[in-house]
Amino acid sequence: MVLAVCAALLGPALFGIALGYTSPCLTPLAADMGLTTLQASTFASVINLGAVCSGLFGMRYVETLGRKTCLIVTGALYAAGFGAIATCGSYPELLVARFVTGLGAGLATVVTPCYIAEISPAARRGALGSLYQLFCTLGILAAYGLGGVFHWRYLASLTAGLSMVLVVVCQMLLPETSAWLDKSGRTDEAGAWRRGLALAESSPAPDTPTAAPDGGAGGGMSKAALRRALLLVGGMMVLQQLSGINCILFFSGEILAKAGLGQDVSACLLQTSAPAICR
Questions:
Q1: Closest C-alpha among 19, 86, 25 to residue 266
Q2: Would you put residue 156 in left (φ > 0), alpha (ψ -120 to 50) or beta?
Q3: What is the reported pTM?
């Protein structure tokens, strides 16, 4: 179970790298490719459009194709997107490649938390589920650090290679979740899966509805409580986007450079104090 969770967390780590990639790499990329300010900004932000597209429809495929298959598709999208960035020769190719990485990012936000929740015992589900955001942040940090060491094409190639690791690991090592196997009528496989992870067979799958006090469904929660939870979660996501955090993530390199923090912006991003180069 621990190995499966660690493998699944490669998805959000790659998501973080995709988000942070343009911060250290956008300026040299624009110089090499001869991009205008508008073109460079569009390249950085088009990932959001891809994420929206796959995020809106991703759950349908998670339910029909399965969690494991969608994790494999996520890795393949990352590999295709970053591989195209590493080898692109024109601005349209850059846009398409960045959009494809956005498709992988949006699908990862749907399938990875679902997969981790369904393979985790109830006592550990909250702790393991919180690792998703942690690994996103670690991926952003990795992009900031590696961007100061590698050329933007080399960093894209490295990320494409890591994405292929995700594909191979998911294909060879990750099991499908018992909840999806139950939904698909493969109850024998689901029971064997739960026994292998030492989960109680008598316990329901994480998404199995139980009777609510008012006669509704939702694991003991009333429909009103579910609506409140949905509004709170949706509200937090909207406020997160309205805060402008994506602009900071995408363009922090240029923001720090224009603030007069020196030429080696990537070094500044990783410093906890203000060395001479960042003054």
A1: 25
A2: alpha
A3: 0.77
**CATH H-level superfamily of 2-201:** MFS general substrate transporter like domains (1.20.1250.20)
For 28-78, write each residue's pLDDT tens digit.
Answer: 999 999 999 899 999 998 998 998 888 788 888 888 888 888 888 999 999
Domain map (residue ranges) of the chain: 2-201, 218-279
Cβ-proximal residues to 174 (8 Å cutoff; 6+ apart), any chain: 4, 7, 8, 68, 71
Q: Which two tokens stand for residue 143?
A: 């992009």
Work out the percent of the chain whose per-residue pLDDT is above 90: 27
**Sign of CA pseudo-dihedral 29, 32, 37, 38:** negative
Q: In which region does residue 210 sit, left (phi positive, over 0), alpha (psi from -120 to 50) or beta (all else)?
A: beta
The structure tokens listed for 90 are: 């024109």
Residue type, 22: T
Rounded to the nearest 10 degrees, the angle between the axes of helix 245-258 and helix 131-147 is 20
What is the per-residue pLDDT across 101-128, written as a single tens digit (0 to 9) for each? 999 998 988 888 888 888 877 778 788 8
